[in-house]
Amino acid sequence: MAWFLVEIEYVPEKFAEVRPRHRDFLVSLAEQGVVAIAGPVDDDKGGVAMYQAENREELQKLIDQDPYHLEGAIAQRKVREFKPVIGAWLPTQ
To answer: What are the pLDDT tens digits along the chain (93 aa)?
Structure first.
């Protein structure tokens, strides 16, 4: 399994209407252990989420199901693989 940071910028006139469905989508993924953390940034100009997926292709299939994507509320999306090595949330080695 790999970790990915997904950063999005919103389409200003669309995101607020879609936000409840987007959050339901993320809550469901968080309950499954797929989303570790997510939230808005820059005074609601965008958001960041950390996903766990088998690989980039599986992640792409998953994030393409996000209501923000399906309903055209994302102006830009950036995906980066993330390899956590230090942090309070990591198991001790």
So the answer is: 999 999 999 999 999 999 999 999 999 999 999 999 999 999 999 999 999 999 999 999 999 999 999 999 999 999 999 999 998 877 765
E strand intervals along the chain: 2-10, 35-41, 46-53, 74-82
What letter would DSSP give residue 93? Answer: -
Q: Do residues 4 and 79 lie in contact, with contact meaning Cβ atoms separated by under 8 Å?
A: yes
Nearby residues of 16 by Cβ (< 8 Å), 6 or more positions away: none
CA distance 40 to 86: 24
